[in-house]
Design a protein that fits this description.
Elements: E1 2-6, H1 15-22, E2 26-30, H2 37-43, E3 49-52, H3 59-63, E4 70-73, H4 83-88, E5 92-94, H5 101-116, H6 119-127, E6 146-150, H7 154-165, E7 170-174, E8 185-186, H8 189-195, E9 198-201, H9 215-219, E10 226-229, H10 238-246, E11 252-255, E12 275-277, H11 286-304
Parallel strand pairs: 1-2, 1-3, 3-4, 4-5, 6-7, 6-9, 7-8, 9-10, 10-11, 11-12
Length: about 325
């Protein structure tokens, strides 16, 4: 029987994967590697397909897996896998880009609202017995403002739709690969930083997008600007963001992702009152987990049947 190796644990059960892959003539094996690259290399030596979350799958691990036909990422980003090395071996790399859209965009909204309405500091004030110190911590209305999106995929579009409901007057987007609707203005990152009241990041992490919000970009932002990141932590230069927050050069930030995850206990972010943090949980709901596990297993089953995956991301020249 062929073997599908799951290299990251964390889900309550894997019954969907077991059932779907049994129909494709494969069994599943859970070998939790928890970010250890050497453990990944050992775990996948006898794999026909790998299902991965955060643990890295590098060229060395691929070289030691002679039967491997495909890697499917539980999620959207594929920066944890060496896609070029996989393509050189004609190993499919696929992801699941069409799950959790509503959940992540909801979470981005929650972070933005929590920062804009100072929910965490208001909560702390009430718990401390203080009442209405709002005028000392100014807030600004959402309606009539400008939203800037870095990336314009499914989640960004859902987030913009929800923000329209709060009355934003203008939406800018930077995405070289996307066709934009008529009510969204194409803009470069510098223009987004200069003109937006809210900046939300929805781009994949690539060499081109790493630190796309750096010190120079943050220096262009309005002092009332709010930055939200539910995509990948390294899209922002975290050191530059901390300086901008600490010095009050932007209003605040809502972060679900970090350059290092989990963040170090001594990160200055924890001491800042104008940032709201969560634990890379924007993707999560009971419904999104079930959807993600099912769709990842279906992609693995396609590869096992000799079919191209629906969401093949490392296309090689003669297979496009």
């Amino acid at each position: 029987m062929r073997r599908v190796v799951i290299i990251d644990d964390g889900y309550d059960h894997y019954e969907q994967e077991r059932a779907i892959l049994a129909d494709a003539g494969a069994g599943i094996v859970l070998r939790a590697c928890r970010g250890d690259g050497r453990a990944v290399a050992a775990a996948i030596v006898d794999a026909d397909v790998v299902l991965a979350r955060e643990s890295p799958v590098d060229a060395a691990a691929l070289a030691g897996a002679p039967r491997l036909a495909g890697i499917v990422r539980y999620g959207i980003g594929v920066d944890s896998v060496d896609g070029a090395a996989a393509a050189a071996r004609r190993i499919y790399l696929a992801n699941v880009p069409d799950y959790g859209t509503e959940d992540v965009s909801d979470h981005a909204m929650a972070l933005l609202l929590a920062v804009a309405r100072r929910v965490t500091t208001r909560d702390a004030e009430v718990r401390a017995g203080r009442w209405f110190s709002g005028s000392s911590q100014k807030m600004h209305r959402l309606a009539g403002k400008t939203l800037g999106l870095v990336g314009h995929g499914r989640i960004a579009r859902a987030f913009a739709r929800k923000m329209r409901g709060f009355g934003v007057a203008r939406v800018l987007a930077h995405d070289p690969h996307a066709e934009l609707p008529a009510d969204v203005e194409r803009a470069d990152v510098a223009t987004i930083c200069r003109e937006s009241d809210y900046i939300s990041l929805h781009a994949p992490l690539t060499p081109q997008t790493r630190h796309i919000l750096d010190a120079a970009a943050l220096a262009l932002c309005k002092p009332t600007a709010i930055v939200v990141n539910t995509s990948r932590g390294a899209l922002i230069d975290e050191t530059a963001l901390i300086a901008a927050l600490r010095e009050g050069r932007i209003f605040g930030a809502g972060l679900d992702v970090f350059e290092t995850e989990p963040p170090r206990r001594d990160t200055p972010l924890f001491a800042l009152s104008n940032v709201v943090l969560s634990d890379h949980t924007g993707w999560y709901s009971e419904e999104s987990v079930a959807e993600l596990q099912r769709k990842a297993a279906e992609e693995a089953a396609r590869i096992l049947r000799g079919e191209r995956p629906l969401n093949w991301v490392n296309r090689w020249a003669d297979g496009a």
